[in-house]
Amino acid sequence: MDTSLNKYISDSGFCSRREADKYIADCRVTINGRDAHKGNRVMPGDIVKIDGEPLKKNVARVYMMLNKPKGITCTTDQKDKSNIIDYINYKTRIFPIGRLDKLSEGLIFLTNDGDIVNKILRAGNGHEKEYIVTVNKPITPGFIHAMRNGVRILGTTTRKCFVKQEAEDRFRIILTQGLNRQIRRMCEALGFTVTALKRVRIMNMTVKGLAPGKWRFFTIAEIAAINEMLLQSSNLADGEGMGE
After folding, report:
1. pLDDT exceeding 90 applies to what percent of the chain?
2. Catalytic residue (choose from 26, 35, 51, 101)
3. Is position 101 annotated as part of the catalytic site?
4. Is 0.85 surpassed by the pTM of this model?
5. Does CATH place domain 63-122+210-229 in 3.40.50.1820?
């Protein structure tokens, strides 16, 4: 049976479907020696290469979580000296699910399973991400109200969400969407600047017990629980994913 090219690449464990689309657009992918294009299908027996190297199928799936420290960039581009892949230095190729800003910290997942990446990143699923955020000045009731009810950024209004003040300049927020730099942009639109941002939970997984800079594999029970939550996955909303 034939398979879409970006799914074929992500299923190999090389990268996510989104990243595969970038490789294809940058003319770095060939099928049977010919330049590949978005929308191509891969038939049994086809030889797919990226940067001239045959794509290899990974058999063992890897699922891990990292308590990302500040200063690490959520990219697989090893030209970036602060990239998350070199930081973890795992023996086989993995890639992050979603992103956290370089200056942000906290929970991020990494895997070589392109299928689960695609499902988790689907904004329509309403998967929760929880953050603790510190800003540069005292929080006002108007700020909390606006954050809860939607802020105009990137040509759209953010979804209503849970927001709770926890200190004079610190609040907790739970998002079910992932616009680019969403929390920072929301705060900036209201006249506040984020000085610290930490993601403490994704779906049913928390950063509790994982020291900053450390990573661990998912347990079998955690993998089963996440797969159960993903059974009813919906279509990806354009421009959204698991950002902050």
Report:
1. 66
2. 101
3. yes
4. no
5. no
